[in-house]
Amino acid sequence: MIERQRIRLLVVAILVAIAVVAVGVFVVDGGTADPDPVLFDDTVSMGLALEDEYGLEDDVRLPRAQVFYSQYEYVVGYYGVEMFVASFREAGHTDRFGHPRTVYVSDYSSVDVELSADGHPTADREPAWTDAESAWFAVGSEATTPSGQTIVPFADRDDATAFVDSHGGSVVAWEQLLDRDVEMDDATVVRDRVDQQHQNADERIEAVSALADRPVSTVVGEDAATVQEAIDSAPENTTVLVPEGTYNETLEVDRSITLRGEDDATIRGDGNGTVITATANRTAAVGLAVAGSGSQRQGDGELPGDEHDGEWDDTFERNYAGSDAAIGLHTANESLIEDVSVDSEVTGVVLRRSENSVVRDVTVDSPERWEDGHAGVLAFHSPTVVENATISDGRDGVYSHRSTGLVVRNSTLEGNRLGVHLMHTSDALLASNRLENQSSTGIYVMTGPERNAIVDNEIRGAEYGLFPDGSDSYVADNLLVDNRVGLRIDATGSRYEGNVVAGNEIGAQVRAMLPTNQVLENDFVENDVHADAGTGPLRVWTHDGTGNYWQGASSITGDRTVDGPYSPTAPVDRQLHRTDGAETLARSPALDAISGLQGTVPGMRTGSVVDLAPTCEPNEPDLLAETPWADRAWSCERIERGPSP
Fold this sequence. Notes:
By secondary structure, the chain is α/β, with parallel strands linked by helices. Helix content is 19%, strand content 30%. The strands form eight sheets. Strands 13-14-17-20-23-26-29-32-35-38-41-44-47 form a 13-stranded parallel sheet, sandwiched between helices.
């Protein structure tokens, strides 16, 4: 009885909506006059990671474009004219945005342009804007942005010719430029190199694995009275052996040696500072328990090892990487932390400017209150491999800052505030991790990075399961279960495929303003709401004729697809998996009418998601079988026969 009442209410809502649209729609005419350029800060921009933006010198003036589209209500800003050209040439670009009505580009004829040592265009002020159709473009020159080679536009052809005479390249007009192939590292490139990233991580591990097997030169208690005396007397490239027992010491390692514990060897600090500080390349700590660090969460301005003054994040580095820790690697490249257990007062392992280091088979227990700590593993300017780690109860399980190329894989993170937290970190691989009961977010990627791969992770019991920001990332084959929001989509130009989003309050929450993502072959099952979309245009989650599986979409024909589109944000469609008898309603003339209006009236297309080719059975049945709801997701054959009693 209750279900029939709910269906009647839905029908009434549809009919009211149809009546309102029929008498009250006001469509604004965009007009035919060319609009004036706007402030670039007022555009919805893409093409430059925040790390790169913060790191630019004050006089750097990167080429930019701003585009007014016929079907998109916002002005889109591109860092790099090549970024617009690459986007314009992508399949489906016109479907999402319409045709470019007007394109403005930076006019380097309006300034005295030079190139920095990095190849970045510099000037004493921002260039003016000029119409792209009448501009001239220097291509193939020495000019660069942080993303690579860039195109430099000029209003005057003679200025463009003078630039290429000085810096190489050639001059082309607008139409010629649009016909050029521009290669960018997009999400497809990221997908295709995941295996190579794993191989690179294996090679980095192999490069430091020999550190665990260095010959023993010094035994604590036999050759030296204390661990520190043994470190100070041991020749480089040898091992200091620490027999079973507790050693109440604070250690400094300034040479390339290995500190290896036997049985239950424990290094316990006195509650002040970092317990083990290493400042030499190819240092290793193996087979130890470490406890007794200080509880200072913010550095005092002094950092071990080399100083790097003048960078935009120096203060942040001193504060975070200078906090007390169980183990601190500072300017210690190619080092190894292996088979170590840490009882952390603030941070477990700090890696600062310690590239190509490895942290593996490590257990970190963080402070009881996450507010008292920083991270289980903190990587600062340190492309690190973290694998087979178990990290619990911290502020952040793994925190990364400007550690491009970071790898976190095969690790377990439980009960932290944030499981894996990336800041200003691009080209990372987060793979095959298990994250449970983070109080805030399982995997949180912030500050607009690029080209991250997030694959094969299992995330359960978080406020937000997976929250990637940035652009051109690859998010695939993740299991997102029992979160308030399974997947938050703020990224642009990214590819989401093969993810199972099940049992969440909201399956996917979309807040990206640019409709540039590819969302396909994902499975949405038993979420209270499969998808929710904020302000912005209609998002079409179908790519090359392939959509997603939505529990509740029905009325199938053919082998693999549902007959007709499905919108998880539409009033009726979003109820189909929750309301008995809704399949009958889904075929009603009222729904057909409202669907037709949604496809033609701009005001009804915003804040919505539509799948034009939903699949009639799950795309990832094996992954879905790891949830309690696999039997709720019907196969094509089962739908054709009807659900079992």
